[in-house]
Amino acid sequence: MTYARVKGTGSYLPERVMTNAELEQLVDTSDRWIRERTGICERRIVADDQSCRDLAMIAASRALDAAGLQPGDIDLIILGTCTPDRVFPSTACLVQAGLGVNPGAVAFDVSAACSGFIYALDVANRFITTGGARRALVIGSETMSRIIDWTDRGTCVLFGDGAGALVLEADDETGILSTHLHADGGCEDLLNVPWGVSQGYDALSGSAGKLKMRGNEVFKVAVRTLGRIVDETLEANGLAKSDVDWLIPHQANIRIIQATAKKLGLPMEQVVQTVAEHGNTSAASIPLAFDVAVRDGRIRRGELLLLEAFGGGFTWGSALIRY
Ligand SMILES: CC(C)(COP(=O)(O)OP(=O)(O)OC[C@H]1O[C@@H](n2cnc3c(N)ncnc32)[C@H](O)[C@@H]1OP(=O)(O)O)[C@@H](O)C(=O)NCCC(=O)NCCS
């Protein structure tokens, strides 16, 4: 049996820190409200001359270093993003060229909003376990600040920029145990960015073409849905809640994370939390959190990790990994 094993992790956050106090100057909000309702204290914002590709390349280089591999060792790149550099080439292709990954490797983006990394991980796992690739870079990279309406207090306090990456390698030893993906396209009006290439560019200027969210309604669906996927994942593997060593959730809101941890009966000490410093970095949030907890020594080899995400689409998914 071939597994996809996590060989290395990497991440990158842009230098610029935006605090809640700064947001108080932009919209009618307060540091206290943001901390209490979301758990967020600050977030990072890309520099004017940085793009999704730039963040992804640094995170991917760090993951390769951690794995002890070279770009030439990689034969698959899958990148989750909803803020790509271009319509095409895909950001994955731009990363391939930038890093010097073999011409001829497979490279493509997946679009599943905040679930983008879990979707990318699922596809990479399928490539590796069926012999379609041996070593994969799976990346989540986002420049959310570019699609935020900085006059909308209901959304602009939530998001941040960043990138995270995993290197997966085919291995006889256990690795990714299962992945679970779902979508429901019927709730588009609750969370969307209402412009796209085929609809023309009229909405690009001003706030019309920026991210829209009915936060309270999204919140309720997210809590319900994530509770269900936790059960689905454990049942599929015949495991108990108490078998999970670490929950690595999508970092949207500390209250959503707490609800999922409660459902798992997991103390918050076993939940990787980066939402306070990163905000919601969409597809980048899980690999960013993963890398933070590997590098600070919390996550150790052999431990059982449950990753879960929920986002626009709606899309949602999970992965169970023996690290
Ligand atoms: C956005 C979110 C933080 C709002 O928190 P909430 O507790 O649901 O708050 P509500 O939307 O019910 O708003 C409560 C009040 O706070 C106000 N409010 C909203 N944003 C505010 C802000 N930044 N500062 C101060 N007040 C704010 C609202 O206008 C509302 O005021 P009203 O009662 O006078 O109408 C929360 O709903 C959330 O995190 N939603 C899901 C996020 C998510 O998961 N997104 C995408 C999935 S990736």
What does this entry show, briefly?
Helices cover 33% and strands 25% of the residues.
- Given as residue ranges, the uncertain stretches (5+ residues, pLDDT < 50) are none
In CATH terms, the superfamily of the largest domain is Thiolase/Chalcone synthase
> How does CATH name the architecture of the largest domain?
3-Layer(aba) Sandwich
The dominant shape is globular
Q: What is the alpha-carbon Rg in Å?
A: 18 Å
Q: Strand order within the widest sheet?
A: 1-7-6-4-5
Q: Would you report the number of β strands?
A: 13
Kindly name the structural category: alpha/beta
**CATH fold title of the largest domain:** Peroxisomal Thiolase, Chain A, domain 1
How much beta, percentage-wise? 15-25%
- Ions and ligands: coenzyme A
Main sheet summary: 5 strands, mixed
Q: Report the average pLDDT across residues.
A: 96
Task: Give a written overview of the molecule.
It contains ten helices and 13 strands. The chain folds into two domains: 3-173, Thiolase/Chalcone synthase (Peroxisomal Thiolase, Chain A, domain 1, 3-Layer(aba) Sandwich); 177-322, Thiolase/Chalcone synthase (Peroxisomal Thiolase, Chain A, domain 1). Helices cover 33% and strands 25% of the residues. The strands form four sheets. The protein has a five-stranded mixed β-sheet with strand order 1-7-6-4-5, sandwiched between helices. It has a four-stranded mixed β-sheet with strand order 8-13-12-11, with helices on both faces. Coenzyme A binds next to helix 2, helix 6, helix 7 and strand 12. Coenzyme A binds at residues 29, 33-34, 37-38, 114, 153-154, 157, 191, 213, 215-216, 218-219, 222, 252-253, 256, 280, 310-311.
